[in-house]
Amino acid sequence: MSNFVCDNIGATQGGHLTFGGLDTVELAKQYGTPLYLMDEDRIRHNIRVYTEAIAKYMPAGSGILYASKAASFKEMYRIAGQEGIGVDVVSPGELMTAAAAGFDLSNVFFHGNNKTDDDIWLAMDQGIGYFVVDNAEELAVIDREADTRGIVQKILLRLTPGIDPHTYAAINTGKVDSKFGTAIETGQAEQLTVYALSLKHVRLSGFHCHVGSQVFAEDVFERSASVMLEFAAGIRAKTGYTAGMIDLGGGYGVRYVDSDPYLDIAKKIRGVAQSVRATCIRLSMEPPAILLEPGRSIVADAGMTLYTVGTVKHIPGYRNYVSIDGGMSDNPRYALYGARYTVLPADRLNEERKMVCTLAGRCCESGDVIQDNILMPEDIGRGDLVAVCTTGAYNYSMASNYNRIGRPPVVMLQGGESRIAVRRESLDDLLRLDI
Q: Across residues 331-355, what is the average pLDDT?
């Protein structure tokens, strides 16, 4: 590993930050700022770490689904299709983006705790592969709509296994008290399963869970697998139904700052596979196919955001503010979660950084901060470039037009070349829907 938070980051002799092998200063000149950069080579590498480890260690039929919500635009689905993986979607917008990119929708899993009737109709009309069903109301609509089309719709049931991954409360989704899924502990998951098995136009393919995001804990997925397999074994004993797949969701953590640990994903997958095999032996059951849903760990370290400094404000005895031409409209994660980032002076890496400051955005909002307590050159000023690292996940996808600010473009980097994947939002774009 390099001295940077991720090994696709480097520096030129002249002190310019590089990303994916390209000079960020030159990229800023070419495309302007704010600017989302995405390292395609890194995305593909991260996908292959998963697929190769799963092929080596997991039961036959296992695989990954890219969690679209981390970063959803056409190029991501083209990459997923070329790499031979499935995807999950959580909205009609994500579904139709995948369709527009030519992705095979039979390999798409549609999530969500409150899919509308229109969502279900659209997904069926498009030939969705699977619904990940959250509740009985949704199940009834899927069965009814499948009946009208003369089809049998494949589904998974999303269950809550009662696992606490000790992560941010806002992204902890595996506890019994969650808006997602149906709880095993209360007996409701068994009731939902029996109901699903009674329906003529639904085919239950297996069970799904997701315990949270940014997970570093050693045994979270092993514990989830154990709970889910024990539930599946119990259902088999009571009904005769054998689950063909168990989807353990996603959530492996990534390094945002130097203090975050480095996760060996292949080693983690091997550990989960060993746990699955041991549990299946104990329960006298054939191992089902295991699905994982990485999102952040596919795209986070493949992303970087570049900004241009506008003003620097010194308040003696209080704080220094470095204000940039973006902010919470293109990255709301600090405002939402207090998310940590590594921030670097992209054009002045060789210079000493002694000034403690807050990186503030341009929005008319006191909470518009990208990061507190960072170090910058003492004479940083208007026109200098700042890079925020590890922004590939939940930055573009969570961006808004707050303050009527257009969203930045997404520029893909591959093999020493760059290209626009999503163009910069213009003032005309902002006005297009107004009447």
A: 96
The two structure tokens encoding residue 363: 């929005």
The Cα 341–Cα 9 span in angstroms is 14
pLDDT tens, residue by residue, 239-257? 999 999 999 998 899 999 9
Contacts 24+ apart (CB under 8 A), 133-136: 133/157, 133/158, 133/196, 134/158, 134/180, 134/181, 134/182, 135/182, 135/192, 136/192, 136/195
Is the pLDDT at 49 greater than 70, yes or no? yes
Active-site residue identified among 209, 357, 363, 364: 364
DSSP, res 407: P
**The model's pTM:** 0.94
Q: What is the largest CA-CA distance in the chain?
A: 72
pLDDT-based confidence at residue 164 (cuts at 50, 70, 90)? low
Amino acid at residue number 219: D
Please give the full DSSP string across 273-293, using - where no structure is assigned.
HHHHHHHHHHHT-PPPEEEE-
Which has the closest alpha carbon to 209: 182, 190, 179? Answer: 182
Greater confidence, 216 or 387? 387
Q: DSSP string spanning 178-208?
A: -SSSEESTTSHHHHHHHHHHH-SSEEEEEEE
- The three-state secondary structure class of 322 is strand
Return the higher-pLDDT residue of 170 and 188: 188
Spell out the residues 6+ positions from residue 15 whose beta carbon is closer than 8 angstroms to its own: 347, 348, 349, 350, 351
364 is an active site residue: yes
Cα dihedral 69/429/22/348 (nearest 10) = -100
Per-residue burial over 23-54, b if 16 or more Cβ lie within 10 Å, else e, is bbbebbeebebbbbbbbbbbbbebbebbbebb
Q: Are 342 and 377 a contacting pair, CB within 8 Å?
A: no
The pairing of beta strand 63-67 with beta strand 9-11: unpaired
Smallest CA-to-CA distance from 79 within 69, 68, 89, 95 is with 68
